[in-house]
Amino acid sequence: MTTPLMSGQAGASESTLSNPGFERGDLSGWSTTGAAFNGSVTNQPGWGWGCCFNQQGTYHLWGFAGGGDAPTGTVTSEPFTLTGTGMASVLVSGGRNDDHLYVALTTLDGTVLHKATGTDDEAYRRVTWDAREYLGEQLRITAVDRATGGWGHINLDDVRVGLDEAPDPGLEGLAAYWDFAEGQGTATTERISRSADPISYVFNNAVYKPNSDPLWRTERQEDGVLSGALLFDGYSTWVTRAASQTQLPTDGMTVEAWVAPRAFEWGDEGKPSAIVNQQDKAARRGFSLGVGRHGVWQFGIGTGDAWYETAVPQAAALAAGKRAHIAAVFVPSEGTISLYLNGERVARTAIPTTARLARADVPLLIGRHNQPAIINGTFAVNMFNGLVDEVKVHTDALTAESVRAGHEHDMRTFAGGSIPEARMAMDRSRYDGDRYRPGYHFSAPNHWMNEPHAPIQVNGKYHIFYQHNSHGPYWHNIGWGHAVSEDLVHWRDLPVALAPTAGSVAPDGVWSGDATLDENGVPVLLFTAGNDSQRPNQATGLARPVDPGDPDLVEWKMHPTLVTIQTADLDVGAGRKVRFGDFRDQDVWKEGDTWFQLVGSGVQTTSGQSVGGTALLYTSKNLTDWTYAGPLMVGDVEAHPRTGQVWELPTFLPIGKDDQGRQRRALLVNPSFPDGPAEYSSKYTYYWVGTWDAQARRWTPDTTEPKLLDYGDHFTGPSGTVDDKGRSLVFSIAQDRRTERAHYDAGWAHNAGLPVQLSMRPDGDLGVSPIEEVSRLHVGEPLLDINEPISVADANARLADIKGDMLHIKLTLERGSAGTFGLDVLRSPGGEERTRLFYDAPAGQLGVDRTRSGNNSSVDANLGIQKGPLTLSNGELSLDVFLDRSMIEAYANAHKSITTRAYPFRQDSLGLRLFGDGSVVKSMTIWKMGNLTD
């Protein structure tokens, strides 16, 4: 007979047994003595008080079925000639008793050649015997039951003769082994059963891009044979092995693996990120090997009536970015669970000697928790993020010497006996072909980002940091991503700069902040340090580069103490109190010998009613000792509800001096709405322009009326710096406003806007325009270049053949007699889909009409129209428009901007068309744009 376990085995031949799996429903072909096996052939899949036998086919021999545990006897097959591979194998389960309860391979005279007993469990496991020395001889299979009392029965199924491959001596004693040697494909072969286990991965069946394989790291000869591995992306990658395929020992086991975590999860619901598990902890069944917060790894095992767990001390925690060999050994005979790191025991916990593994009827999963916490209704957390290799489940408890020897054996396979580098850098090519992922707007290389922040120029290079979750495209366990550029438009990814770290000022999150230079010209980061054990859980931390001479400033070290802590008694005005607990997102600059720090917060009445957001001002002479100077400004949320109850990302930048020599500055804020309404969240950046007196610590806005910087509902999270050209530059996050399901399917969330330059306009208002370096993204000659006035109709004739979603369009339109005029982008041939950038002359407003943009994957059902006031310049509208797949940015008259998104359904929504009869096209140039990493 053949079974799924035999598929694909070379040299298989037909068994000479006539009823090897009892599929006739009886004992024909078998003889019995005694009463133990009378009536024991059954088609029951489970034993009534549990599940499952996992038999092959329909029928099997359940020694308990005929008369329970009391009867004794034997059942013996007819003689067969050993042929084929010389292997004989059987499925065995039932009671454990080597002397009185077993299945054996015997000679015709009854001499036992090999035998196997049960494991006090009804679920079958396969036992394979190497009998090649008896090839061509007549043999038998016999089951012996001379045991009575509890577990006094043995079970048998699926006898295979000459079908299995010869065992690999290196696999002896293993119940399961995954070596991840494939290097490609969507399945991995478990070497003991030789079955292919599926690898779940988001792009196996991609939604927004072509399908692609999971993230394999193939073996490199220069590193050694164990240098290959499977890279688990942290949210969508896991291996599944059905419960019916997994046969685990109950009275002692060892689980080991080579792992290299890329980062560590927060540990939602107190659960570790599973490396390998088959657990139902609520039922106290199964086992789990995983890594918790800050690299502390642990092993748990369920006995049915208890769950026993042990974890390593912090000193033996795994290190992010480093390979390590870990092993967990369950030894009930000694009453211990021991954990080993790189061959050395690092933890040991006492357990009862009566403890036995109670198997959980759930799949065995590698990389995913059997019972994960769920974030945003979509993302399963408690998942492993990093490399996994050489996962082994042993059938017994290895000794300390065996664990050490196994580790040393593996080490000898590495080139030079050294553990190779863990190759886990996030690869942007993973998203190749994604129709919505921007190509030249900065984004995290993988997964989630929100605001870029702490921009700084050091030795001619621009550095940007950003809020980043390396585990998946959702907000959680945030650290600081890092990238560097020489021109502000081409960026090179660097390793994570700061991450939540045990024993630091930021164990729970490293949130937004800023960068400055210290008294020696060395860059310093000031960040929002998250510590959920304190209230407030937000304070200012400081970090310095480990090597200030490193041109990339890759490594950073946190200062051991906080440098600014919010107190509840801060003076924010009579009858008012600070919103205690909201204290984040630093903006830092230096004037003379003094550093200034703004921190976003809110102000309430003493009775708790919200007054508005605020930017709290601090001063320092050394960056570590700060003095509170009061609120720079307090908002009015009642009069201006869209400015929020809290201000985040306060950004305070110089924009020039007025005719009296006074320093003019712009204050930009990101409104936050902890008290609601949610409809205003993550949409706006407001600003005020005024004069700043550093000596008096006094900011005088021209008006208390807030103004919108960008009319598109997507420009948020400002952060700024002044570069060596004296330019005030602002970075932002361009909210993608997609559903959580779309984030999951896409594998990324959000991207930055283009850096913009602030200026002071002649009327004293704030001007915003794209930086000149965007021209470095142009690819080749212009696709269109109109440099003399023509009609809209004539211009459209020249636009007819121009298609694209990565374009820069520079356009000047004269209103003429038109009432409303502008440009349609991402337009389908018939106009069924398009995004309309328009100027409404009678209303004096610049706007975007997205009612036909397409909202494939958008969280908003109705995209609507967004607009705001803009005065034409001599009757002209000058636009810089940047299309980058789902991104649309338009800068108008160096004064206002629109940042918006479009997710067209149609593949042909790539056209351009002007509208507005009576208007005149003064000039229009279109360039194709390259990628930010080119």
TrEMBL record:
Domain LamG-like jellyroll fold: 251-401
InterPro entries hit by this protein: ConA-like_dom_sf, GH32_Enzymes, Glyco_hydro_32, Glyco_hydro_32_C, Glyco_hydro_32_N, Glyco_hydro_beta-prop_sf, LamG-like
Record's compositionally biased regions (Polar residues): 1-19
Record GO biological process: carbohydrate metabolic process
SUPFAM superfamilies assigned: Arabinanase/levansucrase/invertase, Concanavalin A-like lectins/glucanases
UniProt keyword annotation of GTP-binding present: no
EC category name: hydrolase
Entry EC no(s): 3.2.1.26
Keywords for the protein's UniProt record, in alphabetical order: Disulfide bond, Glycosidase, Hydrolase, Signal
One term of GO molecular function: beta-fructofuranosidase activity
Region (Disordered): 1-25
Stated family: Belongs to the glycosyl hydrolase 32 family.
The protein's name: beta-fructofuranosidase
Protein species of origin: Streptomyces paradoxus
Species lineage: Bacteria, Bacillati, Actinomycetota, Actinomycetes, Kitasatosporales
